[in-house]
UniProtKB/TrEMBL annotation:
Pfam families: ABM (PF03992). This is Antibiotic biosynthesis monooxygenase. One of its GO terms (molecular function) is monooxygenase activity. Keywords: Monooxygenase, Oxidoreductase. Residues 2-92 form the ABM domain.
Length: 107
């Protein structure tokens, strides 16, 4: 399971436009193959900053969404509202074994 976080800062006067875009597309995104979860978070200290939190069966499923016609409509419309570049990253759950195997050997 892959988790994707996208942090976006919006121009204050464009927040309502973003929320309308999100509300219009959220169910379509949730119904994309491999999407298991999607929610929108608002920053507790910066009310014009929002994060999307989504979970995907695989990186390939996320990539397929990012190549879809839906993403081709939603992302450009959203990007036009930004006050700053977004921060996006993907993560996997870390187990003790996977965390330790990626560390350099001690000398």
């Amino acid at each position: 399971m892959l988790t994707r976080i996208v942090r976006m800062a919006f121009q204050p006067e464009k927040v309502a436009d973003f929320l309308a875009i999100f509300r219009d597309s959220e169910d379509k995104i949730r119904n994309m193959p491999g999407c298991r979860h999607l929610e929108l978070w608002q920053d507790a200290d910066q009310p014009t900053v929002y994060c999307t939190h989504s979970r995907w069966d695989s990186a390939a499923d996320l990539d397929n969404y990012r190549r879809s016609a839906l993403f081709g409509q939603v992302w450009p419309a959203t990007k036009a509202l930004f006050a700053a570049p977004p921060l996006a990253f993907s993560v996997y759950p870390a187990g003790v074994e996977s965390s330790l195997s990626s560390l350099p050997a001690s000398q």
